[in-house]
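Subject: mismatched residue count in predicted assembly?

I count 595 residues in my input, but I want to confirm that the predicted structure covers every chain. Input:
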Amino acid sequence: MTQSRTHTCNELRLSDAGAQVKLSGWMENFREVGASLGFVVLRDFYGTTQIVAETEEMVKLFREITKESTISVEGTVRERSAKNANLPTGEIEIVPEKVEVLGRCRFRELPFEINHSREADETARLRYRYLDLRNPAVKANMVLRSKVIAALRQSMTDHGFLEITTPILTASSPEGARDYLVPSRKHPGKFYALPQAPQQFKQLLMTAGFDRYFQIAPCFRDEDARGDRSPGEFYQLDMEMAFATQEDVFAVLEDVLPPIFAEYGLYDRASASPFQRIPYLEAMERFGTDKPDLRIDLEVTDATEVLSGCGFEPFAGNTVKAVVISDFKESRKVIEKTLAEVEVVAGNKAYWFRVDENQEIVGGIAKFVTPTKEKVIEALSLKSGDLVVLSAGALSAVQKTAGVIIKTFGPVVPGHMDKEQYTFCWIVDFPMYEIGEESGELEFCHNPFSMPSGGMETLLKAERGEIDPLQIKADQYDLVCNGIELSSGAVRNHDPEIMVKAFEMVRLGEEDVKAKFPAMYHAFCYGAPPHAGIAPGVDRMVMLLAGEESIREIIPFPMNKNAQDVMMGAPGPVEDKQLKELNIAVTKTEEEVSG
RNA sequence: GGCCCAGUGGCGAAGUUGGUUAUCGCGCCGCCCUGUCACGGCGGAGAUCAGGGGUUCGAGCCCCCUCUGGGUCGCCA
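Triage response: the counts match. Full output below for your records.
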């Protein structure tokens, strides 16, 4: 037989019994049952098939082959005398006639066991990622990722969007994250930058007359990693629409995402269109965060009036927020443990008391609350069985802590979280400006590309002192799913005059706009359409769908937390010759100098 | 950069108030086993207990420093 295989390892069934076949794959295991009986598990991308060795010679032959070598087996399909209902191919086995080793595994012991690689040391997994990926459970996430990306691409195309690629080598952008820079050989002292996002290109495409653009876009940001944030590079489903409003963008994603989440996700329920729209300030007030997990039914109640003067020292003169958790039946130990978690994550103390079956305030800070019991019960609408968790301090810190309380207690207390679903919401009406923490002056809150709500009129009112600049909203929105921020988007500011005015609010002007965004500013002077867009993170979506806690589980070749590829050795040293060509001074490390 | 957690044969873990030869499972090697499928049985090899310093009669365990990894805050228009 000259073919390398006639079937995959997940293909043969009882009906194939008697057929002459050739299979190729990795020798996963050899179970030796006697001097002349043994069973090989042959694995390929598709599944596994059992090979039976029933002569002394055959047993000896397989015994010599190291596990994880690739082999091909020619033989006859036969019905098993002992079937395995757990395997799709469990009714048959192959009686081999010819066995060939295709790629010998040179090691008797592997860095980890393939089928248990997820339990192994992560550095070892990343260093031997090609072995880690042999694990069907690891591989499954890559298959999922591929399917989700294909589905997104198909759906966007079906919605009339055109996929257009934009440059990877481009100019450094002055705002936002740290850029990855690439030196230029032909222009000494000058640098390309890898795009943090195709933001400006997609807006230029709108100006050029493309109506609906999208791209599975690689984005590069030199910022520190998180569990849900890969260092260095990630992918966005980047999209932009001409002559579009906020609602037009919402309508597209409300149509594209839920079916894909329901089909490919861990849970088969996903929010239907329209998603809840929650103004930013309301989200902060009700959920203590701008990325609420709507699967949790807990909300924040203000308790400043009834509790700031209760005599409990940390409350004195501070804002106090309460999260009331009804039907709380867990032990005090659970409260203390969960509270400790809250304090670690929020970096802020949290306090508690509960209402017992006799409507008495007990536990935690009860003795400070009891004197004004009736007032507190009324203000917080308390009833028997309620646990009240509190935070105190300055407004923003208190809100944040309350948000962490909701997120931490929600999954722990039975009955307050309907976990198995995807809940989407839009956070809208973000403030356009804020007072910078360092500067103490007015600054852009998010990005300067967004259209101020109400356009020029609003900015002029602020300029005339008729409204507080901090009250100005931007036509900007976040898409949140299960407490994870999937994306920011906005109706863009396509008007050069409004752009300049928006910059003047933060003490900048036309020259700054031109300097920072020369192409966009000039392009908009040639007739730009109003446009809006968004860019949901592909990696985060796949993470949600796979139910993974770490973003590295859904990236084929991830870097570690320190932005290193331990398999390829990146970043790595380069030849002096390369540096000279790039007009970069050759410097020696201390080690090289002293050594 | 701050804070928290972890590092013990190839892999995953245990290791008591500090006390003799560091324990268990997987894997590896050898022998046995004719229907296994997490095969089983018997035996064996394999460890500078991350590194350095200190306390002590004695350190895997206590203290200090360093390194590595993970989480988190900062950061991420």
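Chain A has a mean pLDDT of 93. Marking this ticket as 'not a bug'.
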